[in-house]
Fold this sequence. Notes:
Elements: E1 6-12, H1 15-27, E2 33-37, E3 40-46, H2 50-62, H3 67-75, H4 91-94, H5 98-116, H6 118-125, H7 146-166, H8 169-191, H9 199-216, H10 225-240, H11 249-265
Antiparallel strand pairs: 1-3, 2-3
Helix pairs in contact: 1-3, 5-6, 5-7, 7-8, 7-9, 8-9, 8-11, 9-11
Amino acid sequence: MTAQNLRKFVEFTSMSAAHLFADYCQTQGLTVQVQPQGHTTSLLAPAEQLEHIEPLLAEFLREPTHPRYQAAAWQQSHSVALPTGSRRFSLSALWQTPLTAALLLLTLAVYLWQQIDFNGANAALQLHQPAQVWRWITPILLHFSLTHLVFNLCWWVLLGQKIEQYSSSVNLLQLAVSSAVISNGLELALNGPNFGGLSGVVYALFGYCWLQDKLNNTEQYPVTNGLAAFMVLWLALGFMDVLWINMANWAHLGGLLCGLGWAWLSRRTRTNL
């Protein structure tokens, strides 16, 4: 059957999920072809079979981790791992996500620089001179304690790696740069230039991952409702000034709103019947 006889009926951001559903359809006697398209994967089928495929797709989107789909993959003589938020961090996978790895290494290098010349590093990277364009981004590389550094980098690696895997490096880059500029600019305007840290970007990743899963009815990212509620509570406590640490609260808020905004703008229609 040629591609001219087939119609695209769904587009996935995950190739493994597309293969999983295609295999299941094959075991039901339906003709479904997988067609990679850049950072997405389309599924195609004969027009006359779409009325049979549509209810199966609705079931798959509601419960993609059901054993029936993995069983179908085995029946087609291969196993497909469906991406979920429970996938563990993999160091080898980190090197397959170059932007995540690059910012990790750059932040560690800047922290080492701070240990050698704290004042010099801060003077070079803080947003003291807004006319120097790079300073709207470089404060995210500064961290003022080991705890601050480790907390931010752990979340950057976990969430950044997922976004880069399931979407693209370009998507992660635009999310990181825009949230850095917005969070740093908001903090500068309301609190002055003496701040630093990756937290604004981390909050952007949290917001993006949580809302992406909600809008697309998926569980790709490890941001549960409970974790999202905790992050919002932490943000609120920072504004209430009841915590034992000083936080760039406006940067956190700016990053969160930026991440939610990108998730809303990049939402996609799952089906196109």
